[in-house]
Amino acid sequence: EVQLVESGGGLVQPGRSLKLSCAASGFTFSNYYMAWVRQAPKKGLEWVATISTSGSRTYYPDSVKGRFTISRDNAKSSLYLQMNSLKSEDTATYYCARHPEPVAGVMDAWGQGASVTVSS
Amino acid sequence: DIVMTQSPTSMSISVGDRVTMNCKASQNVGSNVDWYQQKTGQSPKLLIYKASNRYTGVPDRFTGSGSGTDFTFTISNMQAEDLAVYYCMQSNSYPWTFGGGTKLELK
């Protein structure tokens, strides 16, 4: 069974940093592109980042480019999201997701989400 | 960025209804639109990919169609367990963008 389990969420002050982790199991992690998607409270979904199988290619929307960094450790079947210079508008539930096809946006497995609150 | 506009934003429906919702892209996205279902308190779930392909295990009452800028998602025989918010997403060009969602509620 494919499982994605996020951790590392919490309350953080504006301007500070936080790192999310996603532990993957039930599939060969190194074969898949992976992504982060977020959802602000009572709002819709926003794609945040995608990383290639090797980690050599990463993709971001302008809203987080330069502040967020997606990375992975294939040996540990783990995905990460380093979030720096956090703003109140980054408050959201962050989902880890799997891309079944490379360089394609579709996401066929999602974690349960990690809650991040940016507030003083 | 490509804007995905979903309509309607909400629908009041009854079990057994045929439900149709729309997603309009601000520019041509080919067939690169996926549909997700999100039930209250749960993570999104993939239902349809590349406009019209039903994902593994998805009941055949869910169908998608369209190409270019106009896309349609249909539930042919609404079930109580289908109450959720449905999102379209384009993955034709970065940044990938979601529609605002269509919420299904019981009449």
Structural summary, described in words:
The complex is a heterodimer of chains A (120) and B (107). With 120 residues, chain A is mainly beta. Helix content of chain A is 0%, strand content 49%. Chain A has strands at 3-7, 10-12, 18-25, 33-39, 45-51, 58-59, 68-73, 78-83, 92-99, 109-110, 114-118. In chain A, the strands form 2 sheets. In chain A, strands 2, 4, 5, 6, 9, 10 and 11 form a 7-stranded mixed β-sheet that branches. In chain A, a hairpin with a 6-residue loop joins β5 and β6. The mean pLDDT of chain A is 97. With 107 residues, chain B is an all-beta fold. In chain B, 0% of the residues lie in helices and 50% in strands. Chain B is built from no helices and 11 strands. Chain B has strands at 4-7, 10-13, 19-25, 33-38, 45-49, 53-54, 62-67, 70-75, 85-90, 97-98, 102-106. In chain B, strands 2, 4, 5, 6, 9, 10 and 11 form a 7-stranded mixed β-sheet that branches. A 4-stranded antiparallel β-sheet of chain B has the order 1-3-8-7, with no helix packed on it. In chain B, a hairpin with a 6-residue loop joins β4 and β5. Chain B is globular and about 35 Å long. The N and C termini of chain B lie far apart (36 Å). The mean pLDDT of chain B is 97. Classes of the chains: A mainly beta (120), B mainly beta (107). Chain A binds chain B through residues 37, 44-47, 59-62, 95, 104-108, 110-113, and chain B through 1, 32, 34, 36, 38, 43-46, 49-50, 55, 87, 89-91, 94-101.
